[in-house]
Amino acid sequence: MEPTRDQAWDTLTRYTKSEALLRHALAVEAAVRWYARFYGEDEERWGVVALLHDFDYEIHPTLDQHPQDGAPILREEGYPEDVIEGVLSHADHLQLPRDTQLKTTLFACDELAGFIHACGLVRPDGIDTLEPKSVRKKLKQPSFAAGVHRDEVYAGAEGLGLDLDQHIANVIEAMRPIAPRLGLRTAADVGAA
Ligand SMILES: [Fe+2]
Ligand SMILES: [Fe+2]
Fold it and tell me: What is the pLDDT of residue 83?
């Protein structure tokens, strides 16, 4: 079976009701799809893996269950093994090899997308004029978005072989078109305020 985005969205929304988690899935999906286009890879397949990567987090909120206990559910729903493997690979505690470009990319986008989202929430125009430099500055403030693992952000860019600023710029660009769906303000809101 070739999984489609619709199917992944259906699975995700059956297990995930929290708007924050859905936004996270959409942000990571946008970033991973951006990289799929960048590398000339299968955008639909990459997007499916990204959408699903935390699909079970609401029902399995601890690391002794997430994401490993989600895998049998995905298998039952008919997702191919490469999708399931991709989903499992994002979890550092499972220590699975990130031996494909998709796995490296998913890992690199997961924490960073969340961090960029947090940066956008405190700006009047969201991420419209957000620059890598100010994201980097915020990364150095431990109290800002304290839940984001900085070491994973740095390791992610390194895994991609990209300069951190470039990686940040790419993920911002990827997220901009869906900023309103992510609950972020845009430049248009500034004039209206
Ligand atoms: Fe996760
Ligand atoms: Fe995630």
Answer: 98
